[in-house]
Amino acid sequence: MKFKLLLIALLFLSINCFSQSKNNISLVYGIANDVGDNHGAIGDYGYNSKSGMMYGFSYTRNLTKSFSLETGFLYSVNNIELTTIGPRGGTYDQKLNMLSVPVYAKLTFLKYVFAQWGFTLDHETNYSASSIIDDQSGIGIVIGIGGKYNFGPVSVFANPFFCRHALGAQNNLVETGIKFGIGYNF
User: Fold this and answer.
1) Per residue in 87-132, pLDDT tens?
2) What is the pTM of this model?
3) What DSSP string describes 138-183?
4) What is the CATH number of domain 21-185?
């Protein structure tokens, strides 16, 4: 057991020693788009994700020149529209607020381009039993590709993404959007 712990500690130390890239902390702003109409059976209700915004920060730990791990903290507000059919049919709006901790693997290639994939741990802060869709708390998946540029210690990036929240829920919030950020390399 001690040998395994020593081996793991040496692995992390060697990764830190051989890292040729800088670590980064960034402020993030993002917008999300409508990704489609999610309906149940004919005569049932459905919902649209109308728009969304996110704010937060990210931390990137470079393990090699081209591979890094990224995490952070995001707060998002999504506007959801419910449509119903029948005698009481109509359209109803609701806000969905969520705190997320993303964990991504990030591969940088062609100097300014990166791809990322991973998962997000989400907590819907305003869920109630009368909500339009299922509770979106849980684990989601994220993929994206983007571009970044460094101005000395300052970096900027743009990152189009696809995210599907609450993998175990029947009605998932599905987003496409773009994140922008400005960061500091250290």
Assistant:
1) 767 787 888 899 999 999 999 999 899 999 999 999 999 988 877 6
2) 0.79
3) EEEEEEEEEEEEEETTEEEEEEEEEEE--TTSSS--EEEEEEEEEE
4) 2.40.160.20
